[in-house]
Specification:
The chain is built from seven helices and eleven strands. The protein is α+β, with helices and mostly antiparallel strands. The structure holds zinc ion.
Length: 265
C-alpha cells in the first residue's frame, strides 16, 4: 500500500514525465476506474500545467480541468515499457511521445475528472485534513489537531481528518522515532512529545523519499529494503537499544515497536 512518500514520488514522476507536454490522448483501458461518470475526451488536447499531491491523491493539473488519481492498494503511474504483465487501467499519451500507464494489479485504484475549481472541495469531502508533510514541524500545531483525542497515539495518527497522509507504516515509524509508547492516549502527550512526533513523521517521510527516488518505485511494504527502523522487523534487534522489536495488533492494524526505548512513562 503506498503511503505519503510513495505518492509524493508518483506525483513528482508524473510531473517530470508529462510537464510541458499536451495530453494528446487519454485511453481508458478499464472504465471501472472512474469514481464518477465523466468524459475523458474533456482532457484531450490540454497542456499539463503540473502535478501535485494532496494526502494520498495525485492531481494532474490540465488548466481548467484535472485528472485526480487515487492509488489504493497497488495502483501506480509508470512509463509504458510494453511489459505485458502490467494491469493497465489508463494510458496517457503525451505530445512528445511519452506514454504513462496507470498500472494497478488489484484494480482497486480510482480516478476522477474534475474542474480544477472543484478539486479542493472534492478532497475535503473525502474527509482529508491538512497534510502531514512538508513543513509541519510545530509540535503545538500537532497538539491542536489532536486536541482531546483519547485514542492511542499510533491509532490516532491514522485519522486522516486530523492530519492527512500518515499511514500504518508511518505511524509505527513516527512513534519509534519519537520514543513514544504507541499505546499512550494522544491526549496525554506533552508539547515536547508532540514536537518529537512531528519530527518523527517528517523524518520518516524525508528518509523514505531519499531511499525511494527512481522511475519505478517499489512499495515499501513489498521489499522491506531497509528504510524502516521497526516496521516489519519483529524479532530483529532495535537499532537504538538492541532489544528485540515486537509486533502487536492495535485496532486491527499491526504496530511494531521497541518495548524498551518506547517504554511507558
Ligand atoms: Zn529500543
Amino acid at each position: 500500500v503506498p503511503e505519503l512518500p510513495e505518492v509524493e514520488i508518483f506525483t513528482r514522476n508524473l510531473a517530470r514525465w508529462a510537464g510541458g507536454q499536451t495530453l494528446s490522448r487519454l485511453e481508458v483501458v478499464d472504465p471501472r476506474i472512474w469514481g464518477a461518470p465523466c468524459r475523458p475526451e474533456e482532457l484531450e488536447g490540454r497542456e499539463v500545467i503540473g502535478a501535485y499531491r494532496r494526502a494520498k491523491y495525485t492531481v494532474l493539473d490540465l488548466g481548467s480541468w484535472a485528472l485526480v488519481l487515487h492509488y489504493r492498494m497497488t495502483g501506480k503511474p509508470v512509463l509504458d515499457d510494453g511489459d505485458v504483465r502490467r494491469k493497465v487501467r489508463l494510458r496517457l499519451w503525451f505530445s512528445e511521445g511519452t506514454r504513462v500507464l496507470f498500472d494497478d494489479a488489484r484494480c482497486l485504484g480510482q480516478a476522477w475528472i474534475l474542474q480544477c475549481a472543484n478539486v479542493d472541495s472534492f478532497l475535503d469531502a473525502r474527509g482529508l485534513g491538512p497534510d502531514a508533510w512538508p513543513g509541519r514541524r510545530d509540535g503545538a500545531w500537532w497538539a491542536a489537531r489532536f486536541n482531546g483525542v483519547r485514542a492511542p497515539i499510533k491509532a490516532a495518527l491514522l485519522d486522516q481528518k486530523r492530519v492527512a497522509g500518515v499511514g500504518n507504516i508511518g505511524a509505527s515509524e513516527a512513534c519509534y522515532r519519537a520514543a513514544l509508547d504507541p499505546r499512550r492516549p494522544a491526549s496525554s502527550l506533552t508539547l515536547a512529545e508532540w514536537t518529537a512526533v512531528a519530527e518523527g513523521v517528517l523524518g520518516w517521510v524525508d528518509d523514505t523519499l531519499a531511499h525511494e527516488l527512481g522511475d519505478e518505485i517499489h512499495f515499501v511494504t513489498a521489499g522491506g529494503e531497509g528504510c524502516f527502523r521497526v516496521y516489519g522487523r519483529a524479532g530483529e534487534p532495535c537499532p537504538r537499544c538492541a532489544r528485540v522489536v515486537e509486533r502487536f495488533v492495535q485496532r486491527g492494524r499491526s504496530t511494531f515497536w521497541c518495548p524498551r526505548c518506547q517504554g511507558s512513562r
